[in-house]
Write a structure and sequence with these properties.
The protein is built from 15 helices and ten strands. α3 packs across α10. It has helices at residues 3-47, 51-56, 60-84, 106-110, 189-193, 201-218, 223-229, 231-240, 261-268, 280-292, 314-318, 344-348, 372-382, 415-424, 464-473, and strands at 169-172, 251-255, 272-277, 299-301, 321-323, 338-341, 357-363, 383-393, 427-437, 451-460. It has an eight-stranded mixed sheet with strand order 1-6-3-2-7-8-10-9, sandwiched between helices. Belongs to the carnosine N-methyltransferase family. One of its GO terms (molecular function) is carnosine N-methyltransferase activity. InterPro entries: CARME (IPR012901), SAM-dependent_MTases_sf (IPR029063).
């Protein structure tokens, strides 16, 4: 490729990055208006009631006003988060190089802003929606190039490493202990210069899903779910690595790290832990919590307000959650904790990653693959001989329902076949059981989705990496 072609390619990819990131930021900015429209819809329905029925439900207008106050609290958190975000590209640039894609999805083809909420076929507001190209999801709700390490004693996530494309940059966790008590900082230039536009409601639903994911990872109310999903993994890591030297800590990769809590907990056990996450929705939020938090319970959100269905009481629906439940910078992380933004396959299917990790932890991640065989192959490739792979999660294949999208591959295997593939790539099963779990579930709701998640520990047999690399080279 000539230098001119390479320059055009880079400019085009940056334009894709800008367009996609604008859409994601716009989804966050559209949150208050979309939530207010829901409340107005509730009010319109109330006004249609006969007078006798209105008298029976005279408390509802007050509830709607309380909903607005809750929306305001959530919006405050979101806007403070966006003000702290430092985009990896110049958001004021003209993106006309992608304007030929008239459906507005240009960026999504490049930066699939996968949502953490793929388990449900309808949005939390009850509006049915379907998965469309570029709006694929990585979570289970209702989902290494230029690596750098943190400064000693610090813990912040930065997205500054993602200068060219969202394909893989490992960024230092360098949270400072700066005092933010002087009040909120000014709106950054990128928010002032960036053109604001409306986005599909499905994009705003992704923001609501992130809010519920915050509870899972960073609120006291999410402790039960973390105990279901994270505690077994942490116990297995402790069992397999009883001696964790401070001078030479074992290394652990966490693909699909979401908002970062599991990767942080692993770091606190004494591992050099790296979280890998593809979704900018997630990374913007995790960066804010890890970077900007100064105190336990510093922020208040209302995660359950967006659905009137299956509530035991209005108080349950409107209840607040204080976040975070721990101060990340004071949690006792191991030096070397990092976050790596980018697609797992593109980042870790690299010669520099062969045999680089003592452990790989996948939690609600395997079924986010287009090709689960490729995921397993790469996990085997990047583990050291004798390395440990710990997995927990269902097989809710996220591309299974991409009807009409001819270019969307989706390989959907049963659990038995998944284990056969793992055996082919040199894994030996050491522990297997089923664990009942939830995912971003409202613990006080009348309806809750439960998974009977597969949990296993597999060990990579010796001399597997070499044979895998040779087969890939053929």
């Amino acid at each position: 490729m000539s230098s001119d072609e390479e320059l055009r390619r880079r400019k085009y990819e940056e334009a894709l990055e800008i367009k996609s990131l604008r859409r994601i930021i716009s989804a966050y900015l559209n949150y208050p208006e979309a939530a207010e429209e829901d409340v107005r819809r509730y009010e319109r329905s109330f006004r249609k009631l006969p007078m006798a029925h209105k008298a029976l439900l005279s408390h509802l207008p007050l509830k709607y006003q309380k909903l607005r106050r809750c929306i305001s609290k959530n919006s405050f958190f979101i806007f403070e988060m966006l003000k702290a975000f430092e985009p990896p590209v110049d958001m004021s640039q003209d993106d006309e190089s992608c304007d030929h894609l008239d459906d507005g999805s240009c960026g999504h083809a490049h930066l699939e802003d996968r949502d953490p909420c793929s388990c449900e076929s309808a949005s939390v507001s009850g509006r049915a929606h379907s998965k469309t190209s570029g709006e694929v999801l990585t979570g289970h709700e209702e989902k290494n190039e230029n690596c750098s390490e943190p400064e000693s004693g610090n813990l912040a996530v930065s997205l500054e490493g993602q200068k060219e494309t969202h394909k893989g940059c490992c960024d230092p966790l360098t949270v400072s202990d700066k005092d933010m008590s002087s009040g909120p900082h000014e709106s950054p230039d990128y928010l002032e210069s960036m053109p604001h536009f409306h986005v599909p409601l499905v994009d705003v639903d992704k923001v609501r899903c992130v809010i519920r994911n915050i509870v899972r990872d960073w609120a006291a109310e999410g402790q039960k779910e973390r105990d279901q999903c994270y505690k077994p993994i942490l116990e297995e890591l402790t069992r397999h690595f009883p001696e964790r030297s401070k001078e030479s800590p074992p290394t652990c990769l966490v693909p699909g790290a979401g908002l970062g809590r599991l990767a942080l907990e692993i770091s606190c056990l004494g591992f050099i832990s790296q979280g890998n996450e593809f979704s900018y929705y997630m990374m913007i939020c995790s960066s804010f919590i890890l970077n900007q938090t100064q105190d336990v319970g510093e922020w208040t959100i209302h995660p359950w307000i967006h659905s009137n269905c299956n509530s035991l009481s209005d108080a349950d629906q409107l209840r607040a959650a204080s976040i975070p439940d721990i101060h990340p910078a004071g949690a006792g992380i191991t030096e070397g904790f990092s976050m790596c933004g980018g697609d797992f396959v593109e980042v870790y299917n690299d010669p520099s990653q062969v045999g680089a990790w003592d452990a790989v932890v996948t939690c609600f991640f395997l079924d986010t693959a287009h090709n689960i065989v490729e995921y397993i192959e790469i996990i085997s490739k990047i583990l050291k001989d004798g390395g440990v792979w710990i997995n927990l999660g269902p097989l809710l294949y996220h591309f299974a329902d991409m009807y009409g999208q001819e270019d969307e591959m989706s390989i959907e295997l049963c659990l038995e076949d998944v284990k056969k593939v793992a055996t082919h790539y040199g894994f030996e099963l050491e522990l297997e059981k089923t664990i009942e779990t939830t995912y971003t579930t409202n613990p006080r709701a009348m309806m809750q989705n439960h998974y009977f998640s597969a949990f296993w520990t597999m060990r990579k047999k010796s001399s597997v990496a070499t044979s895998i690399q040779e087969s890939m080279d053929e």
